[in-house]
Design brief:
The relative contact order is 0.12. The chain starts with a strand and ends with a helix. It has 309 residues and is α/β, with parallel strands linked by helices. The strands form two sheets. A six-stranded parallel beta sheet has the order 1-4-3-2-5-6. It has a six-stranded antiparallel β-barrel with strand order 7-8-11-10-9-12.
């Protein structure tokens, strides 16, 4: 994977097809654009370059804090590489960058990348005050020797545009199935398995307590079926996301019970994906009631996962 964290670190002399955008989540709309870019590049023998940003421009422009991202910068680069992209460049988006004029940005881009075609979605614009609209980019293309290709945005079944904002809302509502459909894959978070209270072992359902990146969006509190992956292995799992009210918990935990697996995975990076929401988080009258419900959750998860295998 060729992933640079600054445009200034890249010097590509081979002719390239370029697209620019945030691409948070790399959802089916992003995939539609990138796949066309890659197909065109393979025919012409050119490189493919995706130029994206971190932090998210929304976070800088609107002072957004807390969970907002659908992918880490590394996850995003991995997904784009999986689509066949040759280079991913993650440019730092800060207050200085936001004031950069569009003409200056295009000038800098063309100094570092031999851009022959620029592929963008409808209504795309870049630069200070979004001055670099499609018409502006075409005028710059005449000066710098590239053409602009405007790609129609993908729409969902309800004819609304597929967007990262919509996927965030679905996740916050617990609708991981629909979010996964718009992503074109199961929604996934990842982090190191750390020691927790180890209560799961005492009640017969040991769990991996996953320490996640705090800026990534999590589904609504509840219990989910899905998969847990580490070291090339993938296991069906049931994941509880919440504060464990039965134990008067206050701290958010993501705890996955891996089905038909036993072993020590502390310290390993676990990727947890979400397929179905079984129920919301609940406070149970007793530990025995909780154990009984977990047994029901696990059985229901087995049925759902077998049906979708």
């Amino acid at each position: 994977m060729n992933h640079a964290t600054s445009l200034h670190d890249v010097h590509l002399n081979q002719p390239a097809l370029v697209t620019i955008g945030v691409f948070d989540g790399v959802h089916i709309g992003h995939q539609h654009l990138v796949r066309q870019l890659v197909e065109r590049a393979r025919v012409s023998g050119h490189l493919t370059v995706v130029l994206t940003f971190f932090p998210h421009p929304d976070a800088v422009l609107h002072d957004i804090t807390g969970p907002y991202y659908l992918t880490t910068p590394e996850q995003r680069a991995e997904e784009l590489t999986r689509l066949g992209v040759d280079w991913v460049i993650t440019q730092t988006f800060d207050d200085q960058f936001r004031h950069m004029r569009a003409a200056d940005y295009i000038e800098t881009l063309c100094q570092h990348v031999a851009m022959r075609e620029l592929w963008v979605g409808q209504h795309f614009a870049l630069g200070y005050d979004r001055e670099g609209d499609i018409e502006f980019l075409r005028q710059e293309g005449a000066r710098h020797g590239y053409t602009v290709h405007e790609v129609e945005l993908v729409q969902g079944e309800d004819h609304s545009a597929v967007s990262s904002t919509r996927i965030r809302q679905l996740l916050q509502n617990g609708d991981v199935a629909e979010a996964g459909r718009l992503l074109g894959r199961l929604y996934t978070v990842e982090g190191e398995v750390v020691h927790g209270d180890q209560r799961g072992r005492t009640i017969g359902f040991p769990t991996a307590n996953v320490q996640l990146w705090t800026e990534q969006v999590l589904p609504a509190f509840g219990v989910y079926t899905g998969f847990a992956a580490f070291n090339g292995e993938t296991h069906p799992c049931v994941t509880n996301l919440g504060v464990r009210p039965t134990f008067d918990g206050k701290q958010l935990r993501v705890e996955s019970h891996l089905l038909a697996f036993s072993g020590d995975i502390y310290g390993r990076t676990l990727k947890v994906s979400f397929m179905h929401r079984l129920r919301g988080e609940m406070r149970f009258p007793s530990i025995q009631d909780l154990i009984a419900q977990i047994a029901v959750d696990v059985e229901q998860a087995r049925v759902l996962l077998d049906a979708n295998r």
